[in-house]
Amino acid sequence: MFTTYLKERGSWILLFLLLQFLAVFIAYIDSAVSLTSILYYVFLSLIIFMVFLVMRYQKEMKFYQELEEAQDTMDFSHREFLSPFERMAAESITRHFEGLRNKVSENERMLDEEKDELLSWIHEVKTPLTALSLMIDRLENQTLKKEMTYEWLRIHLLLDQQLHQRRIPFMENDLYIEQTDLESVIFGEVKTLQSWCIQKGIGFDFDLESKEVMTDAKWLAFIIRQLLTNAVKYSERSDILITSDQRNGQTILEVADTGRGIDSRDLPRIFEKGFTSTAHHQDNAATGMGLYLARKAADSLKIKIDVESAPGKGSTFKLTFPKSNDFVRITGM
User: Cα 213 to the chain's mean position, in Å?
Assistant: First the structure.
């Protein structure tokens, strides 16, 4: 810190040294001036100047240190002995900080209003969407019925994704941890995708040895929905295998498909927001949000998501649930 201060005051120090050199030079060329007296004067001046530098360093650095410490409030009202320049800087910083804080508050308010309006819109759209589902069920043309059911499901899943995307930042306020029946959650999500799976000739195989986990059922259903949607989307006329078992006191749930798989260069990025694919970059059906939101929700539930995949051989997503004792310790329940 002191080195920085010396660099900042380098021009002052240089001016002082030049003045001392000038005094010695004059005494050297003018025999009427005592060189010994001038050297004595220079020596005393150096001592006084060094004391002055140390005192100024302590005073000025105190202001800059408080400037760093006060970055959250920028309140300098408690400083009684500010120099004129320090007071000007403090007032300017405080004024700009207040302006920025007001701007941030206004932006946060607008974002909250926008979020509330979007959530309200999503809930309103669900009503005609439910009515549309009932109308589709009454169709006698089976081909048209399958096509419309598929398009209805796409809209339903996209709305559901948007709804949960808005809720995830406040997910901790919505959690209800309880002993959850894994089988019923999985079967409920498979039933939702039934019409899509029939259209694509996709079946399911189940091997659920471990059927209960300690978690939030609603958010677990959302995570599984994203994994199943991803598996069905990139599979064709094949089976999706869903298994669960206990390993080292933890429940492991795996969702394995035999679809097109994921390129090795994409694997580290599939959970990033908005990332779709480099090998299939032209795929307009992908939003790049499903796996990102699944990971965000899983992190809040202390669930670890891993994936193994290879092009043309399918993908296996693995959910590792926390141990019951660890979960209680982490969440403070």
Answer: 27
pLDDT of 85: 66
Helix 35-69 and helix 10-29: axis angle, to 10°?
180
pTM for this predicted structure: 0.68
Instruction: Cite the DSSP H helix spans in the chain.
Output: 2-8, 10-29, 35-69, 84-137, 142-167, 182-192, 194-200, 217-233, 290-300, 324-331
Instruction: For residue 330, name the pLDDT band (cuts at 50, 70, 90).
Output: very low
Gap between the Cα atoms of 316 and 270, Å rounded:
13
How far apart are the C-alpha atoms of 183 and 246, rounded to whole Å? 15
- What CATH number does domain 139-331 carry, 3.40.190.10, 3.30.565.10, 3.40.50.300, 3.40.50.720? 3.30.565.10
pLDDT in tens, 233-246: 988 889 999 999 99
